Design the sequence.
């Protein structure tokens, strides 16, 4: 059976499989025929004009299809998705097929002009934009209704006919990438450009941010170490450390915006216009006219969404919060119990026991976060039968973020500002931070890696061949990859960093060592995340992005909150209290004054530091200038034609 | 002599005088010839291609020239300055001559397509862009050196040869505008679109803001009245008033952004690209390449400017501040003296005497502000021989703003937060507010109006004719107008509103009646400013603008500061203190908590309310979309030509 494939390989060598489409086993023939015809059909007929080949497995089943596209088709698709590439004059421009010759490294026979990730992104975009025309239902499945303009792929997924669509790994490229990324022991930066070529901008930008953030934490960590080593307890040193931290965190967030602009300008995504894209094809809604592009596409009912949020999501979030606070109270009881135990029978064992409640609590928090997440996903998909992608929608993401924040920090806030127990705060903070880091690394990367490895071995045994990775046939590769887990985007990874930033900055003056642990964790995080991307998950589709989006705001908000918490903490410290022996009032007023000054400095700094470096600003302005000039030019051409047509009429008018 | 003009009037009726150029008396003939030749000369020869006519006065002097332009020249100029006009399909587009037919109300014989203000703006732009070519000096004045690329008009102004350039009033239009603006008693909005047509966008937007701000203050004033009438002193009512004020001020500032976007979209200035304009032609600097447009133009030395700021301006500002604080101390001495006097011999007279120090102080503040301003102007122009325009440069404006702020509010802050004297604060606030308002209205509008009227009468007497305004000949009109004062932009008007906003919001919980006075003042302010614009000053050149610029930020900052001051004031009130009889600490903590909550609400509101209404957002996105599509189109055309030229070479390449 494998011959049928190698036959294709030899005789149609221009077909390069890029994306795998897995249908349910036993899908009706007419459905398959209709679907593949739509994929192959001409654009003019409402097709995607791509190439499709069946993959015949050893069992003779025909439920996996490989999708590719001709070089020309991919170039036209690059224009459709609005890809931005570098021109011969070093400027970045939106790619168009007609202007292809002006782009760097373009040649009609250079099939590497578009990276594989870009090709796969284009194919995904084209597949998802296959829309129902006059079909009333999916052929062969009368119960699966179709409405004009709705995404076919989405409907196939929700009705369970389509199992998944995923891009293929390029084993050669992946091996190279693995080697330069984490394959050798080295000191230096990650190969961000290579990561971007292989996994797309969103993931590369995450790794860029992770790396930047780690470097940015190093000064905090370095300054934090002596506080631990010499057990400094002077208030002035703590004030200095906290002040440095607060200003530093503002600077690093502002500088990141600049670095992000530089990097995404180089990648072309800073110039990509996302607002003109058609709405997510996986989208429920009736057809309407997009007010911007004037194209017909599904529009969005905002009121319906609002109602769902307020009637379903809000009560659910409140319930979860209540539960989370209840667990926190149990934790405090446990903590008290451990303390009593330690006081009664003091020993090495009992002092270790002091950490047990925090560790248990940290584990419970992680579990609760996951339960909340699955429940939220269930609620989102509730009434929609099947979940297309397990990633949360935007609103749920906000709720999830807030829930995580409260879940992780509620106990710390309670200890700090209700119990006023700095010793317990330090101990709890340290235990929570370290436990959650270890748990995360384990749950996110190492466990799936181990599972994946075991599965691979079993697969290979079943295929009764003991080849190495690179010797696998395409069939074997696809069979391995389709069983791999799906990577649901960078949300969880950013969330982890966000919570870590909270641990480091919110109580930085109580536990300066937090930054050290954060740096250590992030160094291993880079490697475990890289491992996760390369070995554990299916290759994700590339997603162009120009910035880290809402996370920038989230980190900035956290840094504002941390100004407030740190000022209060310092104000509460006995050393500072000793400075104001007579009047608590003066103390509080001083603290409030310092806090306002710090906040003012923060805002002025954020205002003064430009978000984009000057040369990027100039390049963007230049492009805008050109595009305005071009608009004038086009109106000019338009006018010529208008004038030519009108001249007779207007001539007549004038004579009247 | 007047016949020579009427001769022109009859035989060259297409020449419409728009701008007046006044040269110094006794300017050498060759200079005049050279300058008028440059104005009339073809664009290709480095001229402005405008029309010039000498105005021969009754004394036979020839030092005033009228500048006009042909209809076609103005349309081409409109394209150069990037004017945005409404198209036939109701969208706003950048005007180009080639696409002129697509614009609403365009007809080749409709000379009202461009408003007079727009025509004058175009002529001003063209005159200021007359640049020296190979001339080494101004002909006839060997000491007035010229450098290639430097503005000729600027050089003529600095060397005193050119006295002034100003646009002519249109007496018919002005009469109409006056009538609909303030000529009849009416309740309603100002004719903003007419103001914009006559005076340009910057001035119209100021009046729009003044009107909006007055309306926005009405709710505050209405709520404030009962506090005064019933002498409410309950803390909860004050808290309510202050809270309402703080949130209201956030709302009005956010809503203004939206209204501003709507208005300037209609005027076309929201779409006008200011960053691509050539630098202010009055600009010192060497020639360089503009990185955005790629055109050769004078560039700017930033370091030189920085040094000047730090070495000259900063010490000067510090000195002024010191002086201002010194005066404040004298005021407090006076205040104390008045209080002592009142206590010693209590009478009606002595209680009136209590207000005298505040009134004197208010007058002194106004005088100091003006002295500071003239000194700052002197410093700016120092080493530059002659001041071209008396308006301050940007940096000095910032300093001036801060100086005004401190000058006006330092004493109030001192009374509130050092002396803790709420009664004095209220009295001082009221006196300062009312005195400064009266002084401003008098000094800004009424005094100049009276002077202007007197001058006009004398002029008319001298011309020994007692005609009404509309019967004046052009010569007489110009002779009247050239003696009028020059309007130096909206800075002072905005500053007045800004300080008023400070009086209203910073201490709103102490003196709720401030808003009432502000509303009353603003209603008369609209009329006196309108009078000022129409009767007192020369017509100013129109200046396109899309928003109120830095004032938005200034008002927002003021509203943040007012949250802090009001929370402190409420916290200090005896009523609130009585609520926390046992612990001052609890009081302060509560106040701090409330303050943080209010600030958080403010920022969330500012974040949640979109800056532009949805339909404007869509229109802007649409335009951007079109301009990107146009860019693609242009690259396409470019490529065609490239491909045609390259086909032979590339064909050869392929064969190899």
Sequence:
């Amino acid at each position: 059976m494998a011959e049928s494939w190698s036959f294709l390989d030899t005789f149609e060598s221009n077909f390069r499989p890029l994306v795998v489409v897995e249908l349910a086993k036993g899908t009706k023939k007419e459905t398959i025929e209709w679907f593949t015809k739509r994929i192959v059909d001409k654009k003019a007929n409402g097709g995607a004009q791509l190439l499709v080949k069946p993959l015949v497995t050893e069992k003779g089943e025909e439920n996996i299809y490989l999708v590719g596209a001709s070089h020309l088709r991919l170039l036209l698709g690059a224009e459709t998705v609005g890809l931005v590439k570098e021109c011969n004059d070093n400027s970045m421009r939106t790619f168009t097929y007609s202007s292809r010759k002006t782009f760097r490294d373009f040649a009609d026979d250079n099939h590497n002009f578009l990276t594989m990730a870009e090709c796969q992104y284009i194919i995904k975009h084209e597949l998802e934009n296959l829309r129902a025309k006059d079909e009333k239902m999916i052929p062969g499945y009368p119960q699966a209704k179709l409405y004009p303009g709705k995404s076919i792929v989405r409907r196939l997924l929700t009705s369970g006919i389509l199992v998944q669509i995923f891009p293929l790994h390029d084993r050669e490229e992946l091996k190279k990438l693995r080697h330069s990324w984490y394959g050798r022991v080295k000191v230096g930066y990650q190969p961000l450009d290579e990561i971007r070529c292989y996994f797309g901008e969103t993931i590369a930008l995450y790794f860029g941010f992770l790396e930047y953030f780690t470097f940015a934490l190093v000064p905090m960590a370095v300054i934090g170490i002596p506080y631990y080593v010499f057990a400094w307890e002077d208030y002035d040193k703590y004030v200095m450390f906290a002040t440095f931290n607060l200003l530093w965190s503002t600077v690093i967030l502002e500088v990141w915006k600049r670095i992000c602009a530089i990097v995404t300008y180089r990648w072309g995504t800073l110039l990509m216009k996302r607002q003109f894209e058609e709405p997510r094809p996986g989208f429920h809604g009736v057809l309407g006219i997009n007010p911007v592009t004037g194209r017909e596409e599904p529009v969005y009912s905002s009121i319906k969404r609002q109602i769902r949020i307020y009637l379903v999501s809000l009560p659910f979030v409140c319930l979860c919060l209540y539960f989370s606070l209840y667990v926190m109270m149990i934790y405090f009881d446990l903590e008290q119990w451990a303390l009593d135990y330690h006081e009664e029978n003091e020993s090495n064992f009992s002092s270790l026991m002091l950490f047990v409640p925090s560790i248990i609590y940290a584990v419970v928090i992680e579990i609760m976060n996951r339960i909340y997440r699955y429940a939220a996903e269930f609620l989102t998909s509730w009434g929609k039968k099947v979940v297309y992608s397990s990633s949360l929608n935007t609103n749920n993401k906000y709720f999830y973020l807030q829930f995580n924040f409260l879940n992780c920090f509620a106990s710390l806030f309670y200890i700090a500002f209700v119990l006023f127990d700095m010793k317990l705060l330090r101990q709890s903070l340290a235990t929570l931070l370290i436990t959650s880091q270890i748990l995360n690394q384990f749950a996110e990367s190492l466990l799936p890696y181990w599972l994946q490895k075991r599965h691979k071995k079993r697969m290979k045994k079943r295929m009764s061949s003991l080849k190495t990775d690179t010797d696998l046939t395409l069939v074997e590769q696809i069979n391995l990859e389709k069983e791999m887990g799906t990577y649901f985007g960078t949300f969880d990874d950013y969330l982890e960093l966000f919570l870590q930033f909270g641990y480091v900055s919110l109580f930085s003056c109580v536990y300066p060592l937090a930054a050290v642990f954060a740096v250590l964790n992030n160094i291993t995080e880079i490697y475990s995340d890289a491992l996760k991307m390369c070995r554990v998950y299916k290759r994700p589709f590339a997603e162009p992005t120009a910035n880290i989006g809402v996370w920038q705001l989230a980190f900035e908000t956290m840094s504002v909150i941390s100004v407030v918490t740190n000022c209060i903490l310092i104000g509460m410290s006995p050393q500072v209290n000793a400075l104001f022996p007579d009047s608590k009032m003066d103390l509080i007023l001083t603290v409030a004054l310092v806090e306002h000054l710090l906040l003012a400095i923060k805002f002025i700094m954020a205002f003064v530091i430009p978000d984009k470096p000057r040369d990027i600003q100039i390049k963007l302005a230049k492009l805008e200038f050109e595009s305005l000039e071009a608009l004038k030019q086009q109106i000019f051409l338009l006018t010529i034609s208008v004038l030519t047509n009108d001249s007779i009429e207007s001539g007549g008018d004038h004579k009247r």
In short: Chain B touches chain A through 44 residues (CB under 8 Å). Residues 302-344 of chain B form the longest helix (43 residues). Chain B has 21 helices and ten strands. Residues 1-12, 275-285, 383-391, 646-656 of chain B have pLDDT under 50 and may be disordered.
